[in-house]
Design a protein that fits this description.
Blueprint lengths: L1 H24 L3 H26 L3 H35 L10
Helix pairs in contact: 1-2, 2-3
């Protein structure tokens, strides 16, 4: 049982490090936001495993709260960047097609 838990913990830590790498090197903003979201999900999994090992079921309540905060914040961040880019394009005005002058 301890060996399986150690292997699972190692796998989660490896995936967390890969998500951090993706968050730092992601080519687009959306890649970075999704990498941070995945990082938070893996952290939640690690927190649940820690609660199981220590025999403290209160850790699962904390993990559920963290999952809700993670979900809401990811949606809020993506909507913020979506509408920010929409406002920037609206501030520039309509785009003239080829051959037309403003």
């Amino acid at each position: 049982m301890n060996l399986l838990l150690a292997i699972a913990t190692f796998g989660v830590l490896v995936s967390i490090s890969l998500m951090l790498l993706r968050a730092l090197l992601g080519p687009t903003l959306y890649d970075r936001v999704l990498a941070v979201n995945s990082f938070s999900t893996k952290t939640l999994l690690l927190l649940g495993m820690l609660g199981f090992v220590m025999g403290r079921p209160a850790f699962l309540d904390i993990a559920l709260l963290y999952a809700l905060i993670n979900f809401v914040s990811t949606i809020a961040i993506l909507k913020f960047f979506r509408y920010r880019s929409f406002q920037v394009s609206m501030a520039r005005g309509p785009v003239a097609s080829q051959g037309e002058e403003r």
